[in-house]
Automatic annotation (TrEMBL):
The lineage of its organism: Bacteria, Pseudomonadati, Campylobacterota, Epsilonproteobacteria, Campylobacterales. The gene is queC. This is 7-cyano-7-deazaguanine synthase. Binds 1 zinc ion per subunit. Belongs to the QueC family. One of its GO terms (biological process) is tRNA queuosine(34) biosynthetic process.
Length: 227
């Protein structure tokens, strides 16, 4: 009988293209995946939850957490969580956009770290993209390195968690091609910030996604209102 322990990874899985690819990469790296999804009052919460569940089925994930974080709607300050702020549709602008949710990834990583410690996982995968993203400050290499240090300082001595960001320096086109290479079911993913039935095609997230498919010379399998 083998004494080799199964290596486990927490995958923060929103149901978007990036986090889904990161989860497939974790599986490819030989990890048993524990998927974590956050319902934080985002406009497309129900559609993202469906994507998460579909992808967990695709990956045959047995252990998953669906975590509710209601306070993001209390603080507002983001077009994703405050219905009084319109989601911008005029194209990607310089600086931190209004779709940035204050310290979202820091909070996600903190909660995921608690789950990782409980589950004795040694890795956490998060699909942050620094090179070709919307300019969010919590998607950078430096931020992730600092979070990793804080998490390992603030957990038990025998807890060692590595935060893995396999997409951080990839362009959206590279992400599309890598996803196709790994047979990721992109038709189950959801990226739109505004709509839950057909993707709007004009928010920042849709624009980044569509441009990635265009540059990669591939066809996006989801339906858009505007192309």
């Amino acid at each position: 009988m083998s004494n080799i322990r199964t290596k486990k990874a927490i995958c923060i899985l929103s149901g978007g293209m990036d986090s889904t690819l990161a989860s497939y990469m974790a599986k490819n790296d030989g990890y048993e995946i524990i998927a974590v999804h956050f319902n934080y009052g985002q406009r497309t919460q129900d559609r993202e939850l469906k994507a998460f569940r579909d992808i967990c089925n695709d990956l045959k994930i047995l252990e998953k957490y669906e975590v509710d974080i209601p306070f993001f709607t209390q603080i507002g300050a983001s077009a994703l969580t405050d219905k009084n702020i319109d989601v911008p549709t005029g194209g990607i602008e310089a600086g931190v956009p209004i779709t940035y949710v204050p310290f979202r990834n820091g909070i996600f990583l903190s909660i995921a770290a608690a789950i990782a410690e409980k589950e004795e996982a040694t890795a956490m995968y998060i699909g942050v993209v620094q090179e070709d993203s919307s300019g969010y400050p919590d998607c950078t290499d430096e931020f992730i390195a600092d979070m990793k240090k804080a998490i390992n300082q603030g957990t038990r001595e025998d807890t060692h968690i590595n935060i893995i960001t396999p997409l951080v320096h990839l362009s959206k086109a590279q992400i599309v091609l890598e996803a196709i290479k790994l047979n990721v079911p992109l038709e189950h993913t959801w990226s739109c910030y505004k709509e839950e039935n057909e993707a709007c095609g004009i928010c920042d997230s849709c624009r980044l996604r569509l441009n990635g498919f265009k540059v990669a010379n591939q066809t996006d399998p989801i339906t858009y209102k505007v192309l």
